[in-house]
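Contributing new records

If you add data, match the layout below exactly. Sequence lines come first and carry their own label; structure lines follow with theirs. Keep one chain per record. Anything else will be rejected by the validation script.
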Amino acid sequence: MITHHTAPPKSVAVVLGTRPEIIKLGHVIRLLGDAAWVVHTGQHYDANLSASFFGELHLPEPDLYLGVGGTSRGHQIGDATQLLDAHFSEHRPLAVVVQGDTNAVAAGALAANAGEIPLVHVEAGLRSHDRNMPEEHNRVIADHLADLCAAPTQVNVDNLAAEGIAGDRVLLTGNTVVEAVQWLLPESADRAALLERYGVAPNGFILSTFHRPENVDDRDRFAAILTEMAALSLPVLLPLHPRSVRRAREYGLENLLARLEVVEPIGYRDFLGLSAESAFLISDSGGVQEEVSIFKRPVLVVRNSTERPEVLGTFAERVLPGPEIGRIARGWLEDLQHTHAALAEIPSPYGDGHASERIVDAIGELVDR
């Protein structure tokens, strides 16, 4: 743990900017304690997507807020890099920690490199091999600049080795999402209250999320997804961001939305509770692919590619928008009890719930060096 090492207060900069980063770095920040200096770039500037999550995870508010949200990817990375470089010059950390594949990750990695500050990349080594994904470029930048790559799975370790990143620069840790889910998954009584609030029954509904531009910014793809979900025999609970609702209206898809249970975005804890009680999920989220392996529900991943192959064929199936969504979903519904029972016997590929401890201990060793 970091307390076993020589890390002064506010000496480890944890750079984040989105909801998934807050979730997956939450326990790392808790374990770092006074050593953590949390910098929020502002990539997710909606309170429902970001600020409320600090309270939900029992974390203190960020020490520094850069406010670079609401601009293009290039502007976000450029502005955040410049601001981080200036702050690191005034308050030089002993290490910089980034997580995942966001614009905040790219900016944090570039600023650490420019300042010759040791960089730790949490959730390193994920690869979709899809250069159309901005996230793929962000994660590659961070991996190649990192002094320590905390890789969740052996697949990720192998990806890094294939690019010449190996040895002391790579540590197999597991994924911090396990700790996050274990920490926040509501108890059964709270989940029952959630079901009542949303008017659904255990295993009697499908939970869905869509936010990726490849789906919601393409009329034909968005229409195909909504059409297939609207035809399913169970109600589909769809927490939809206002931007996606506006897209659907622009495309004239209100009639399809009317056949689904569209609700406002849901907090992470409630989303986990609903996920664990659902029949299955349909989503384009990366995090959902990991989370389902912990509470044992299948997810239909509607994306061109995925950087999480560890769950394909077990907890996840990947399809493109179209009839395959309905075909696979109906197959799961035909024998839902067997589907759930089979998944309950499969361990999560993302580790034992101690990833954050391994990462923080490695940060301490890096700081000592």
